[in-house]
Amino acid sequence: MRVWDAPTRLAHWGIAICFGVSWWTVETYRMEWHRWSGYVMLGLLLFRVYWGVFGSTTARFASFIRGPREIWAHVTHLGTRSATDSMGHNALGALSVVAMLLMLVAQVTLGLFTVDVDGIESGPLSHLVDFDTGRLLAKYHGIGFTVLQWLIGLHIVALLFYTFYKRDRLIPAMITGNKPWQPGWDEASAALRFAPFWVFFVGAILAAGAAWYITAS
Amino acid sequence: MSMFKREWRTRLVTIAATAVISTMGAVAMNAAMAATPAETIKVRHQGMKDLGGAMKTINDQLKTDAPNAAAIKGAGVKVKAAVDGMPNWFPKGTGPETGVETAAKPEIWSDAADFAEKMKAFQAEGGKIVSLADAGDVEGLRTQVKTAGKACGNCHDKNRVKKES
Of A49, A73, B5, B100, which is the most exposed, with the fewest CB atoms less than 10 Å away? Predict the structure, then answer.
């Protein structure tokens, strides 16, 4: 059964690829590519936030962010070796999604203003800050990267745990969009709505346009 | 009488001048010798920071639709300070062995010939930035900042400790 629509999956893998490219390009100091990777990441994040409000139900923040009671209920069942009964993000995974998205938004924003130690390479909005501020933001950009490494590491460890311990095939689901039907999904599947193509189209144009406007200076 | 007087006066002036000059020289030498490694490293850090700030100013201006010639010229003066001063920023004994926090690697002194060559390359490329900035040649600067950036990176890759950011 289809649970993840194509835009959600594309945004997910696009963000994952951009994270890898950004990492590799900064390690090898290919800063022109690093900036481009950041610009694409910015567009993807803007789209993902838009999709979290106007997209399909499994992608919407309002439908997957749960309160402490549901999160706790999920935590108490972590040990049982059965797939989770939530169709999209589970209550605990939702926290991870929100943390990663917030941190990525912060990281990309910092990158816009960052300046390297030689004043040679810099983000597209760095002319708005002085050298010392740009250097300070570069330091935070470095710390942000470490935080993201931990968050993404945790995300991957959790995926392996759900895949092998709980036998919940989350990874193929994010690739194909499909999950095998599980008992207890009647209510969730009745509420499942996929956003029409024009909503995706408008969001993609808006996100790309905004990313272009912010970085083309 | 007047002959003797003039000769006497000349001699006195010579003595005085010699005294003043040698005192000044001694003071200057003292000042140079008194610079501790920590002080030299501090001068070096500040100099590098000023150079970075000047490069940022130039790059920021090049990004705008109408680069400000005065700002570029001002930054060029700061680049000149680094071009002229940098050879004095790395005297022997100001490396990591001092215990003072520095990103300077021991290779600067163990492979001094290579370092001197790279220093010359920086001075040549940086000097071109100085003249282009002074002339307000924006298009010339656009390519020169990249060329000079490579000269900087060429030396930094080998001789500067890589930091996270």
Answer: B5
Burial A60-76 (b: 16+ CB within 10 A, else e): bbebbbbeeeebeebee
Q: Which of A110, A116, A117, A133 to mutate to test the interface with B (most CBs of B within 10 A)?
A: A117
Angle, in degrees to the nearest 10, between helices B37-63 and A131-160: 90
Amino acid A6 reads: A
Report, in angstroms and rounded to the nearest whole number, the Rg of chain A calculated over CA atoms. 19
Record the pTM: 0.84
Convert the pLDDT of each residue in A101-142 to its tens digit: 999 999 999 999 999 999 999 999 999 999 999 999 999 999
Contact A120 B59 (CB under 8 A): yes
Q: Which two tokens stand for residue A200?
A: 């995706």
> How is residue A79 written in tokens?
């040990």
Partner-chain contact A118 B60, CB within 8 Å:
no
> Which single residue is written with the structure tokens 């933001």?
A137
Q: Quickly tell me which residue has 């194909």 as its tokens.
A: A176
Question: B63 to chain A, minimum CA–CA distance in Å?
Answer: 7
Name the one residue in this structure whose structure tokens are 């705008």: B64
Q: Which positions in chain A touch B149 (Cβ < 8 Å)?
A: 118, 120
Question: Which tokens sit at B150?
Answer: 């490579």
